[in-house]
Each structure stands twice: as structure tokens, then as C-alpha cells.
Amino acid sequence: MTNRAYAGAWPVAPTPFSENGAVDFEGMRRVLDCMIDQKANGICILANYSEQFLLSDEERSELSRLCLEHVAGRTPVILTVSHFATDIAVERTRFAKDLGAAAVMAMPPYHGALLKGSQEQTFEQFSRIGEVGIPVMVQDAPLSGVDMPADLLAKMARELEWVRLFKIECPGAASKLRKLLELGGDLIEGPFDGEEGITLLADLDAGATGCMSSALIPELIGEVVSLYLCGRRDAAEAAYNRILPVINFENRQCGFRAAKSAMQAGGVIKSDFCRHPIPPLPVETKNTLLAMLSQVDAATLNWGR
Hints:
The protein is 45% helix and 11% strand. With 305 residues, it is of the alpha/beta class.
């Protein structure tokens, strides 16, 4: 078993909407209950797979309060605070701490394809976020387009007291995780992968102890991580190979819409509506997804039935 403080499956909660586009707050409560029943070791809210870029500031605040109050300590909650403006990211971090979040997650500062923080500006922003005094997860994802080499991340771990968690979902994640752990050692309390777990086994081999996937099959991803960390790599590989087609289909064909469609089919939420300009999943894609989930006995499909 790992002695690192953060391990297992920490999926991202989707944000449900009604058919008219309003946030479905009661559905949000059911989403959280479902994820806890899926044995999530922790839950991340208001991330990209929560469609945070389609929410107003008021909706973000209301969802933050609702989620922390409803989970009520049953599992740790990570609240995403990413923003290009450092002062706003810091303000969001204070808000998360006041609500009782276990940690916050942030991407480096970026806006669009060309407006990006430098490595120095990125370090400074995470330094300011960390001064709030709550564990911080750095999300290293291609969406930002910001270059964060392993030595920069290790520098954060060495010099910023509260920055100890790293979600690595860039190309070559395993190599970067391995380098980060080589440079940062025990200061890296939470080496995570992401991107739906599409490179999970390689990342576990590189030293990852956690996976921040979607809410589609966290109980099955958690099983892989648990088996691996218990020293049962062959069993972990077999369990991973069983669900890899589902992960691949989600990653390449569906994105964040997959979890919502599964939750609608399983009676967790009433609608899998996504706000414009996000199109709905094509019917054929949704049907294929649900058939694949049925083959692996995904808990989501039966939770609300």
C-alpha cells in the first residue's frame, strides 16, 4: 500500500441541468450521493468536466455551498478555483476554505489559445493561492497550453508549503510523473493522473497513487488503483483491460457528456442537457456508450432504478 496521503479514485462531479438550461440543484444532490455510493475516495467539483466554463459566478457560489453542505464530510471535496486573474483565484480559494473544502485545484493562468502565464507568473499565482492555507492541486492539462515542466512542479512542492498535489494529464504523463517524483520525493503527497484514466496503468507504474477521472465508472477505476497499490499488479491490469474500451470511448467520442448520459439512463438525473454551444451526444454514440457500460456492470446505470 502507498503511504501517500492522497490515493484512489477522486472523480469530477458533472453539473446537471434541466431541459430549459437551468441548474438542477436537486439533481446535483443526487449526483453527489451516487458518486459516494460509487465508492469515490474524494470528489472534485466545478472542474472542466463539471462544465465550469458554462456557469455564472453566482451559480458557482451556490453550487459550491450546496455540494459542501450536502456531502457533509462523507468524503473529501476538492473545489476548482482556476482563473486567469490571480486575485480572483485567491478569492475563490478563500471561499473554498471557508466552506470546508479539503483542497482546491487550479490550472495555470491562461485565457484562450494565446494569452498564457509564463512559468514565473504561474509559480507566483500558485504561491498566492497557497498562502490561503489549504492544500492545492496543480492541474497540468493540455487545455491551458501552459508549459509546466517537472522541475517547475517540483520547485512548487519544495518551496510552496501547501502545493503538494499534482494532476498530470499531459501527453507523456507517465514520464512526467516519474520525473516529478524523482525530483520531489515525499513532498509529492498526491501524484494523480487524469484524462479519464486513459493512461492509468502506465501512470501507476510511474508512481501515481490516484486518478481524477469523470463520474462515469469511478468504482471500477478505484478497483484498479486499489489492486495496484496492494501489490496485485496482474489483477489490476486485468481489471483495467476490462474497462479500457469504455474509457477510450468516453475519452475519444463523448467527453464530459458521457457521465451525464449514463446518470440520466440510471435515473440519477432527469436530463443530460448541456448548455449551448455544447451539442448533445448523437443518439448512436449514446446507445453505444450505454451498451458498453452495461457490459461492465457500471453502478451508475442502476443507481436510481
